[in-house]
Amino acid sequence: MSVQSRVEEKLSNALELQHLEVVNESGNHNVPAGSESHFRVVLVSPEFQSKRLVARHRLVNRALKDELENEIHALAIHTYTEDEWQEKNGTAPMSPPCMGGSSSQ
């Protein structure tokens, strides 16, 4: 099973989600072709209601603990309640461009 598929499965099992996007952004970074090390996740859940951003991120990090320790180098997390998602018109910000990692040093 791919890392992306595991991320999707684990988040779907850990949270009550109304919307989930998992985007492999590894191709935007200085990694070998086909890598699965940089991801952006967009989650909409009623579980985020009345939770601060850091608490929301902790829920995601907890669900992906093994992947973050072993395979995922970078994870951009965008968490919304249904109302927040509707206010954003169903869009999340893009990840910033790669600064080159260790190859630019």
What structural keywords apply?
alpha+beta, 3-stranded mixed β-sheet, 3 strands, 105 residues
What does this structure look like?
The chain is α+β, with helices and mostly antiparallel strands. 33% of the residues lie in helices and 19% in strands. It contains 4 helices and 3 strands. Strands 1-2-3 form a 3-stranded mixed sheet. The termini are far apart.
Total strand segments? 3
**Poorly predicted runs of 5 or more residues:** none
For the sheet with most strands, the description reads: 3 strands, mixed
Which of globular, elongated, flat, extended, rod-shaped describes the shape? globular
Mean pLDDT: 88
Binned strand content? 15-25%
Structural class: alpha+beta
CATH class: Alpha Beta
- Distance between the first and last residues' Cα: 34 Å
Number of separate helices: 4
> Can you tell me the number of structural domains?
1
Q: Helicity range of the residues?
A: 25-40%
| CATH homologous superfamily identity | BolA-like
The helix-strand sequence is HEEHHEH
CATH architecture title: 2-Layer Sandwich
Strands side by side in the biggest sheet: 1-2-3
List the helices and strands and how they pair.
Blueprint: H1 3-14, E1 19-24, E2 38-44, H2 53-63, H3 65-70, E3 74-80, H4 82-87
Parallel strand pairs: 2-3
Antiparallel strand pairs: 1-2
What's this entry about, in short?
This protein has 105 residues and is an alpha+beta fold. Helices cover 33% and strands 19% of the residues.
